[in-house]
Amino acid sequence: MEIHSVSFVKSSAHPRECPPMDKPEYAFIGRSNVGKSSLINMIVGRQSIAKISSTPGKTQLINHFEINEEKEPWYLTDLPGFGYAKVSKKDRIKWERTSRQFLEGRRNLMCIMMLVDSRQKPQKVDLEFMAYMGEEGLPFVIVFTKVDKLNKTERAEFQSAYTAEMMKQWYKMPPVFVTSSETKEGREELLNFFEQTNLLF
Ligand code: GTP
Ligand code: MG
């Protein structure tokens, strides 16, 4: 797939403000700072269409980007991060309600891209969130981020360690992508995935 252009559509505070559900859509979700916005920029090949920050919790709104290529246009969606310790309980509950409403009500959502930091051990919040998606029957894949930060040995080990933890809860692993926004590793694989999945819309 060759992306011709990408445009920012809008930021929405609530699912009902989101653009029409008329195109295939992929939502990027994961803990604050995991690299959601960076990965979107890497995929579309634009430095800073999605805002990146070293301060966790930067993305507070649902941000829609429209991708134009040779075939029909589709959406990439940057969702607010979760699991940031400094967020108040009230804001955390609000995040949960908004995200669930979005994920459960967005009928054009082809797949949820669940981002996980490849340098960290499986985190409870992540495993819980995947369990929730499983229970709701929401389709998702795991996208490991920041793999450029691992050395050879760590690279060989992290995926099997993660799989072992997942298998305590699941019968089978969801599809997995290994990525780096720094080196563009995983970009082709993701674009192929979007291209194939768009056909099912
Ligand atoms: P929130 O919007 O706060 O939820 O964060 P986010 O998930 O959108 O993360 P963001 O893309 O803003 O990246 C957070 C930090 O990680 C930034 O300092 C990025 O430069 C860094 N980062 C993101 N992806 C990578 C990567 O693939 N490799 C490396 N080395 N750093 C990365
Ligand atoms: Mg972000």
Blueprint of the fold:
Layout: E1 3-12, E2 25-30, H1 36-44, E3 62-69, E4 74-78, H2 89-105, E5 109-117, H3 124-136, E6 140-145, H4 152-166, E7 176-178, H5 187-198
Parallel strand pairs: 2-4, 2-5, 5-6, 6-7
Antiparallel strand pairs: 1-3, 3-4
| Largest sheet report | 7 strands, mixed
Tally of DSSP helical segments: 5
What hetero molecules are in the model? guanosine-5'-triphosphate, magnesium ion
Rg, nearest Å: 16 Å
Q: How far is the N terminus from the C terminus? A: 17 Å
Description of the molecule:
The chain is of the alpha/beta class and about 200 residues long. It has a single domain, classed as Rossmann fold. Helices cover about 35% and strands about 25% of the residues. The chain is built from five helices and seven strands. It has helices spanning about 35-45, 90-105, 125-135, 150-165, 185-200; strands at about 5-10, 25-30, 60-70, 75-80, 110-115, 140-145, 175-180. The chain has a seven-stranded mixed sheet with strand order 1-3-4-2-5-6-7, sandwiched between helices. It is globular, with a radius of gyration of 16 Å. The site of guanosine-5'-triphosphate has 23 residues, from α1.
